[in-house]
Structure of Zn(2)-C6 fungal-type domain-containing protein:
Amino acid sequence: MIRRSHKKSRQGCAECKRSHKKCDETRPSCVNCTIANRQCSYIQASRFSDPNIQRPSNEHGLRSVPEGLAGSPDESSHSHGSDQSQPGTPIPAPSQSQPYVNLLHLELFQNLITTNVPTFADEASKADWVATTNRYTFEYPYIMYESLAMSAFQLSIKYPSKSAMYLAESTALQAQALSIFNESCPTLTPKNTVPAFLFAAILGLHCFCDTFSTPSPDLNTFLDRLVQSIRLLRGIRATTGTSWEYIRNSDIKVLLADEGQAQERDDKVTHAFDKLKWTFSQSHTLSAFEAKVYGEAIDGLIKVYNSQLPNGDSIVLPDARIVMSWPINVSAEYTELLHQRKPEALVVMAHFSILLHCRRSYWAVGEAGSFLLAAIEEYLGEDWAQWLVIPKEIIPPLEM
């Protein structure tokens, strides 16, 4: 019997030599030790010990775990007192040498493909959603990292007992995504416009959902974070500029909300929107500019409400894409008025809570409508209570 020969591992780690296994010599921990969760050590001098030899970098830009990101969520993305903690805030590039790959990422990827991604699609398009998502996540590492970050964020909500672990991982993955994106896409080109848009969309959704997942008890902090997330979502559209039609007709069009299913509704919600717009237009305290800005924002709410929302009160579809289209398309002028805490801008935002409430069965939305309405109601006080009658009739009080 002819014995199959193989190349010996002459610089393998001590554990593989002790177990008589072929070592792949990956530094600082080989594959065998990583899988077996063993401490990997090399007896011989590292082949990279010579300072004149440059260590090769991963061609996809994969990096190690950033320092300080493995702590509790109070020290990471859910510490609301610092702007550095917000999703979307660049974090310095990591410097450790430990490869940033572990079995937890397999769990996150499985959740991404089997649970996270399908929740965006209807039954007819789930296969196309998964195929398109796979194609882009494997071709563009920054999309993979941010997608896994979003998956970890979802699991932190699904499994509260392990929330701290998932949130820490989500923050670390997002830091990786931002670092790689900033390096690989310093400017937009026809080649990277579509993946850049997809990355920004996932990042914006992550930031928007994070705002409501652990709302700050301080109303000003909560509203500041809300304005920040809206600006980030608006930045998605601004980033693409004149390329929107190209993106809409690209191979990711299956992932975009279909705006062609709008229907004219005639109910108390549309009546409230119309009345609100008319009141602003007749106001003697608003400038013509402000009335126009608020009117356009309300037109956007009407368009969203007429698009894909359920027929009847008993059916609530989980698709949240069309809900997120309002903050993406709302004007910079309205966002600035919201940032200034203009009462009329907050009233418009309170009516947006109706749209969020209609998508409450989607995990990324949940009770966001209730959180938003409660925050605005408390901030405005009794003087503006009559402006919030319709939202309060539709959205139940937030359970404390």
